[in-house]
């Protein structure tokens, strides 16, 4: 299997595990020494990625992703997705603070850049507009 096909196949498996909220299957697609980076912070290694996903699914238990654009370059996969979910549990911020459930629906545009080696994710970078998320949660602008 060529590098591009393997990277896309791994990403598709990861997307299916995410939509199924299958933390164990998703985590097994990450290299033990992988890095996940996003606006909410970093997770280094498979165990931290699993913990990150568990916390995410508590905050957004009905989350689903819809991919609307894909690009593959060598061992790198780039996806533009729409994340649709409801904020039903505590959301941990990079500061260590938590946002209690707001019950609000969220439709968030996300860009995922994923590097795959030997069928495992070694780097996952996710980008989204943090103010857009806070506004949809009813937290921006802050009450004044």
CATH architectural arrangement = Roll
Whole-number total of structural domains: 1
**Proportion of strand residues:** 35-45%
CATH top level?
Answer: Alpha Beta
Order of helices and strands: HHEEHEEEEEEH
Average predicted confidence as pLDDT: 95
**Biggest sheet character:** 6 strands, mixed
Termini separation: 57 Å
Side-by-side strand order of the widest sheet = 2-1-8-7-4-3
Could you characterize the architecture of this molecule?
- With 144 residues, this protein is of the alpha+beta class.
- The protein has one domain (3-136): Roll (Nuclear Transport Factor 2, Chain: A).
- 31% of the residues lie in helices and 42% in strands.
- The chain has 4 helices and 8 strands; from the N terminus they run ααββαββββββα.
- It has helices spanning 3-19, 23-28, 46-59, 130-136, and strands at 30-38, 41-44, 64-73, 76-86, 91-92, 98-99, 105-117, 120-128.
- The strands form 2 sheets. A 6-stranded mixed sheet has the order 2-1-8-7-4-3. Strands 5-6 form a two-stranded antiparallel ribbon.
């Amino acid at each position: 299997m060529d590098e591009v096909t393997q990277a896309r196949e791994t990403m598709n498996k990861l997307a299916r595990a995410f939509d199924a909220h299958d933390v164990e299957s998703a985590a097994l697609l990450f290299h033990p020494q992988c890095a996940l980076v996003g606006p909410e912070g970093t997770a280094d290694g498979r165990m931290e990625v699993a913990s990150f996903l568990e916390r995410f699914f508590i905050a957004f238990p009905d989350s689903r992703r819809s991919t609307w654009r894909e690009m593959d370059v060598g061992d790198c996969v780039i996806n533009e997705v729409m994340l649709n979910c409801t904020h039903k549990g505590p959301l941990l911020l990079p500061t260590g603070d938590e946002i209690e459930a707001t019950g609000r629906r969220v439709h968030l545009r996300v860009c995922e850049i994923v590097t795959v080696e030997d069928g495992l994710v070694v780097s996952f970078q996710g980008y989204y507009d943090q103010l857009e998320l806070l506004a949809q949660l009813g937290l921006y602008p802050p009450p004044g």
